[in-house]
Amino acid sequence: MRNLDIFNESKKYMPGGVNSPVRAFKDATVDPPVIKKGYGAYLEDEEGNTYVDFIGAWGPMILGHCDEDVVNAIKTTCETQIAFGAPTELELKLAKHICTTVDNIDMIRMVNSGTEATMSAVKLARGFTGRDKIVKFAGNYHGHFESFLVSAGSGVMTEGIPGCAGVPEESVKNTIVAQYNNIENIRCIFDKYGSQIAAVIIEPVAGNMGVVPAKPEFLKGLSDICKENGALLIFDEVMSGFRVAYKGAQSFYGVKPDLVTFAKIMGGGLPCGAYGGRRDVMEHLSPMGPVYQAGTMSGNPVVMAAGLATLTKLYNNPYYYEKIERLAAMLENGVKEIAKEKGLPILVNRFQSMMTIFFTNEEKIENYEDAKKCDTNLYRLFFEHMLKGGIYMAPSQFEAMFLSVKHTEKEIEKFLDVMRTFNI
Ligand SMILES: *Cc1c(COP(=O)(O)O)cnc(C)c1O
């Protein structure tokens, strides 16, 4: 069947033809290719078209598609262990590996997605502090848990307004939305609600409003304010963990989060998530403590094996991070040069191998308000042009693009070559 035949039939059986909305390319006027296989830095669709992949399954595929070691780990594990709902040594190995190689993780709990990790971390923070309110930042994404689906408002101490149908006011009334990179805003919020705030959750390098890194002094200030007020600081490293560095975004900032959430890369491409952090906080989880959180599939052996193969390979090959940083810099510089030659209004935000191309004449993008001002229609035209040229990148500017260790100069050149033929 051809791409379009499959996608159209999918629409009969799955809302929008997809199991997660971004895949539908709704902001674009093209239909998404239906992917048949992936190898290294490449994807192939049902019609045999190949693409250089800059989405990487939205982050997880840092080793490239179907990495030999990950495939072997999955194969050998599933011959004898698929699911038990019982303790296994594999889950210990992955837990121990993460606790001993990443900072500030004394204990960890495995779950099945990033959403599960963040919602559980917030529940734990509430259970630990005995407080109800949480602070999140406009433009930060923490999954589809109700309390996080709050619109940005004007960015200044917005009371929770549901940003999604089906979310009762009740679910968001304890969510306070703050402006990213604005420490004054955080101070105001804590002056008013300080004693009621259980936790602040933040993407230390935001990737879900396009790439927008936190400023170091902002994160430092945020951490101090949380401490002064007895609120927990939760770093959502679902995207940035094992991506911007093996030890994640926290390793760049010298700030100590109380809890950290992971997913994406840590599952090696299989459904996975985890949250971990301070021992005294983690010990509030059942069966040790009163905060109930469970999962039939949590710590699944096949998933643990894929995660362990991925993380040990990354840990044992630190030069991977240097390599993808170098290629990402090459991509950034190339994009900027072409933009200049062609007079395209482009601004690139990049943090290691996470990058977004914004279409704007502004000098900087530091928060959601800035990101929303960009020309998303021009981005759409660019995206469609790139896709036709065999470059698979995010269909929306409010996403990141990713490189894998399987990308080389050749794939970066290909991106730049296709970009050179883009005209407004
Ligand atoms: C992807 C993402 C999530 C949600 O993870 P899922 O596995 O899709 O539920 C949460 N937080 C951040 C920062 C993410 O990038």
TrEMBL record:
It is found in: Cytoplasm. GO terms for molecular function: glutamate-1-semialdehyde 2,1-aminomutase activity; pyridoxal phosphate binding; transaminase activity. InterPro entries: 4pyrrol_synth_GluAld_NH2Trfase, Aminotrans_3, Aminotrans_3_PPA_site, PyrdxlP-dep_Trfase, PyrdxlP-dep_Trfase_major, PyrdxlP-dep_Trfase_small. This is Glutamate-1-semialdehyde 2,1-aminomutase. One of its GO terms (cellular component) is cytoplasm. Its cofactor is pyridoxal 5'-phosphate. Pathway: Porphyrin-containing compound metabolism; protoporphyrin-IX biosynthesis; 5-aminolevulinate from L-glutamyl-tRNA(Glu): step 2/2. Its EC number is 5.4.3.8. Keywords: Aminotransferase, Cytoplasm, Isomerase, Porphyrin biosynthesis, Pyridoxal phosphate, Transferase. SUPFAM superfamilies: PLP-dependent transferases (SSF53383). It is an enzyme of class 5 (isomerase). It catalyses: (S)-4-amino-5-oxopentanoate = 5-aminolevulinate. Homodimer. Belongs to the class-III pyridoxal-phosphate-dependent aminotransferase family. HemL subfamily. GO terms for biological process: protoporphyrinogen IX biosynthetic process. NCBIfam families: hemL, PRK00062.1. Transmembrane segments: none annotated. HAMAP family: HemL_aminotrans_3. The modification N6-(pyridoxal phosphate)lysine is found at residue 264. It holds the Pfam family Aminotran_3.
